[in-house]
């Protein structure tokens, strides 16, 4: 029900009217993704191709309350921040089901992209370019006081041309001001900062204290993965990787990385969160590294253009050669241009 100030409120769910989706105009197509808490479908909304995230309501009252709170948080975060490297939020509704609608990105997840490349590695410029996209998205979130907490390749989506990465899935995102109320049960262990789970003996519901530097740690693991195109902590289960990182300070080997890139990775996954750089610093480090590996533009000798009617002195070394290529009418030779090669439209086929 709409309130006088233009906001819709149902329990914890508050949304500006401009973001409210009309479910009657929403058409759901084939499933394109599934996580622990929701399923994502391709679809249409007002003739626009979109991604539709449907969150099941749960069975028990406790489960229902938990899912509604998570949904409300994600919608609040998405509606607050806009950035070219964050998936574009289109709208949401809570009834008849909890739905979040975003732009449809056709390039697939970064996880799928990397798997398709294996055993080959990404070109260094491509890897660093993707890392910059991710870092810029995180800088935007942190500037709004939001911690993502679940930064990993499954939550990074490529655009159709597979040249740009956007961060998606804010289901675990929280405002930094309320971190003291968070539980340790969050994220995916392999990419998670040790301080999120290092006290394994936490009783159910016991709280942990941490800050936005947990995302810098996860970024380091993702950057290592972009550079090597291997699963971090290969040969370990998620829990084994978590134990090794938290209690033995084990990290993937950075020995094969170029020195400057290794410095970025190792500084971001330092054991002491306060010693890790923030994302503004990470962006500057990545840009410096990128400039160091990008060859300078070739400097071409200046071209000398002479008028067709120019008269060169007889002793000029170029005069005789010019006379050879000119005919009696003094026309310049004709340059033949090669024919330029002539340059996917995604069609939504199924609505049900």
Automatic annotation (TrEMBL):
GO CC annotation: cytoplasm
Cited SMART domains: S_TKc
SUPFAM superfamilies in alphabetical order: Protein kinase-like (PK-like)
Superkingdom of origin organism: Eukaryota
Keyword Kinase: yes
Swiss-Prot/TrEMBL GO biological process terms: signal transduction
Catalytic activity: L-seryl-[protein] + ATP = O-phospho-L-seryl-[protein] + ADP + H(+); L-threonyl-[protein] + ATP = O-phospho-L-threonyl-[protein] + ADP + H(+)
Binding site for ATP: 53
Entry keywords, A to Z: ATP-binding, Kinase, Nucleotide-binding, Serine/threonine-protein kinase, Transferase
Residues of the Protein kinase domain: 26-290
Designated name of the protein: Serine-threonine/tyrosine-protein kinase, catalytic domain
Source species of the chain: Dillenia turbinata
